[in-house]
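Supplementary Methods, section 5.1.

A reviewer requested that the exact input to the structure prediction be made available. We therefore reproduce it here, unchanged from the version used in the analyses.
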Amino acid sequence: MIGWSGLPDVIGLGEIMVQFNAVTPGPLRHVTYFEKHAAGAEANVAVCVRRQGLGSGFITRLGADEFGIYLYNWLRGEGVDVSQIKFDTTAPTGIYFVQRGFPVPGKSSVIYYRRGSAASKLSEEDINPEYFANARALHLTGITPALSDSALKASKKAVECAKNHGCKLSFDTNIRPPLWRSAEEAAKTLLPFVEQADILFTDLADTIILLGEKEVDKAIESYLSMGVEIVVFKLGAKGAIAASKGERVMARGYQVTVVDTIGAGDALAGTFLACTLKGFSLERSLKFAVAAGTLVVTVRGDQENLPTQHDLETFLKAFEGNDIG
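The structure derived from this sequence is encoded token-by-token as follows.
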């Protein structure tokens, strides 16, 4: 694939888990069959970047169990560098369940079984500064710092190493309320990462927690004033906005049959990041990113429908004709 030399262009740090996705919609108490998938925000981005033709690597801990072996093999099979993954014999691999279409039709919700997981044991010792020497970006989300104090320290060290080697920080706020004691704790912990971000992915719900701001335009200006180079503001089914100090573009959403919304934001982030690193314009990067997120919601699972650049060009030609940016 283009750009892959065996060294990662993008490094992800976080937790990859086994997702059990309900085959039928409705409350989980009435679901009998589940599909097994590999999922997790930063891991989704790492696979997405590979599908887009760039190199990626992933830093995490997995349980020394069958699920850990499955996830390790999955990432390796996708071409993600797994040299920084450690197996932990003292803690299990995290899992979670996806409940679809209940209590809100067309929406999915997540039930975690990850407390005390191997990835929650991530620490500064798991971060090798030299691993960042040839990378172009570190992708991190607000999930990893929430896993544990040691994972927060690992996140801070990874950002420090990335900056020392001239890597951009790609940060998705991704606030998961069940992982935090309070909204105030989330904001206090995550704002320093926002301030160091070169590319920031966020949405209105997270922004209300972080800034107390309910207006999208004002929020974007606030993030840019913090020193963020590019803000990508996710608008759900409506699309997304990307803005720098000198440019602002919007990409509309596409009408498709929604099966499972989980993972769409990661597809958007991974595609936008890869397109930006490939030198695409802000408009083209965002248009491709929204298309990628759209494809992911049409199936169960976060990674199966992550598209290649050719897939996106085909999608956009079908919806946009020749106007693909």
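DSSP finds ten helices and 13 strands in the chain. These observations are discussed further in the main text.
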